[in-house]
Amino acid sequence: MGHVRFLTSPPTFDLTYSDVFMAPSRSNVTSRFDVDLTSTDGIGTPLPLVVANMTAISGRRMAETVARRGGIAVLPQDIPTDQIDRSIRRVKASHTVFDTPVHVVPGSTVGQAMGLIHKRAHGVAVVVDGGRAVGLLEPQDFAEVDRFAQVQEVMRSDFLTLPSDTDPKAVFEALENHHLDVAVIADDDQLVGIMTRKGAVRATIYQPALDAAGRLMVAAAVGISGDVEGRTRALLTSEADVLVVDTAHGHQDRMLEALQAVRRVRDEFASRTGVRVPIVAGNVVTTSGVLDLVGAGADVLKVGVGPGAMCTTRMQTGVGRPQFSAVLECAEAARAEGKAVWADGGVRHPRDVALALAAGAGSVMIGSWFAGTHESTGELQVDPQGRPYKESFGMASSRAVRNRTRDSDAYARARAGLFEEGISSSRMYLDPRRPGVEDLLDFITSGVRSSCTYAGARTLAQFNERAVVGVQSSSGYEEGRPLDSSW
Ligand SMILES: NC(=O)C1=CN([C@@H]2O[C@H](COP(=O)(O)OP(=O)(O)OC[C@H]3O[C@@H](n4cnc5c(N)ncnc54)[C@H](OP(=O)(O)O)[C@@H]3O)[C@@H](O)[C@H]2O)C=CC1
Ligand SMILES: Nc1nc2c(ncn2[C@@H]2O[C@H](COP(=O)(O)O)[C@@H](O)[C@H]2O)c(=O)[nH]1
User: Fold this and answer.
1) For a pocket test of ligand 1, which of 53, 245, 247 has the largest count of ligand atoms closer than 8 A to its C-beta?
2) Which residue of 97, 109, 163, 380 has the fewest CB atoms within a 10 Å radius of its CB?
């Protein structure tokens, strides 16, 4: 496999995503649907997108929703193992095609239903009685209704029900014929899930990320402090599909020791069960970092120091590396070792994902952009102007450090509290056009599919080979930004 070419000779300084553009090449890929976006990271999820292990973002709803569309979420290292176990079980019990409904019982109050409905982007709640769907609720059903009224007084009972063997395209057509937005999926009178029109279209375009038993995939993170072996054993027993060994400075001795311990436990587990779970480790940004982590057991390297939206590392320390160059160099070094990289952080537009993949990333990890969605873990809040948002925070912020050290003594907590390299509170607004994570996945993947066709690539391996990258000035970048009003 070759790698990305520069239009002119590459500069001697490092570049980030905004510094570069891709030039189109002659292509025989005539449809964007002909592009296969399967990750080249060796894990092989059908979509090369990973949700970052951040407490404000990645939980079971996020994991399930993203895996149904082919990506994978990493449950954070700060979540206790018993809670991770419950989350993994819930993800693996989720239907691989139909959405998990928000459900209430007939005696639930309107207030309870209103508090739950925004947890998922599909915007409805199913009223369930003994496993049977007896009603459907949409936000407009709550208008001018007392919050203490019971949902059975306002629910609709004339909804469309289809069996779970209905093809998604047939679900779409049935919804179209009945002028409806959502169908309830049930077998033998028992609720299975729901499907919206958009969900039906998505089910025909995306493939779910599945484990060997045909269940949705989910990853989990291990920090380098504490009982690394115990945590690894617990995550493997819980059936995490990927282990992510993660710390700010991945190229340090404690990381190498932790990684060796994780590998040891993983290998014991593999010889006992026949299941070899891949290990992702980071973060690094240099060839020597890649080589040391590969030597200690990493299958995939997580690349990125300081590009994250919640990150203050570069301002605090002056350390980091512009992300496009970091990914390019680390991907090349990893490839030479038969390994791959995840490009972690700094993604703000679909183009950034495309450029990371062109630079050779197997998958791209996204955190903050997904914070402002219905599926992130935070509670939905509304600002004084009525705009919905979620609160997010960095994993090295004083807030996260306080949480991580909650079981330490006061002195240790005070010492740890001196170091912070992240933002403790930020507002991530829900984009009214794309309030759900799947809306963002559509936005990103349509951009990346299109990028691949401009390069004449049908797969991400070909994209990495064929992409031609140029360096642009800040006005070159500015020229590419659309205007929403006249100049
Ligand atoms: N990608 C990035 O640029 C960054 C990502 N993060 C994310 O934040 C989360 C928390 O990471 P982390 O702070 O490592 O938390 P951890 O709780 O895992 O602590 C890391 C350990 O490494 C030691 N350490 C040595 N040098 C450093 C250093 N420069 N920065 C941090 N720790 C160091 C610390 O010891 P002692 O406290 O005694 O120094 C501590 O015991 C992770 O998810 C990480 O990915 C954080 C910062 C940057
Ligand atoms: N320096 C810090 N980096 C952080 C912190 N919390 C998370 N991160 C890193 O950012 C990415 C996600 O990047 P994003 O731009 O998509 O938000 C994440 O995977 C971590 O590597 C932090 O507090 N400080």
Assistant:
1) 247
2) 163
Tell which CATH architecture fits domain 102-197: Roll (3.10)
Sorted by where each begins, the domain ranges of the chain are: 5-92+208-479, 102-197
Positions in the chain whose pLDDT score sits under 50: 1
* Feature table: binding site for K(+): 306, 308, 311
Task: Give per-residue pLDDT as tens, 107-121.
Answer: 999 999 998 998 899
CA of 247, closest atom in ligand 1: 14
Does 3.30.565.10 match the CATH number of domain 5-92+208-479? no
pTM of the model: 0.96
Spell out a b/e string for 223-253, using b for 16 or more CB atoms within 10 Å of the CB, else e.
bbeeebeebbbbbbebbbbbbbbbbbbbbee
345 lines ligand 1 (CB under 6 A): yes
DSSP 3-state of 332:
helix
Q: In what order do the strands lie in the sheet with 182-187?
A: 160-162, 182-187, 190-196
Q: What ipTM score was computed for the predicted complex, to two decimals? A: 0.94
Radius of gyration, alpha carbons of the chain: 23
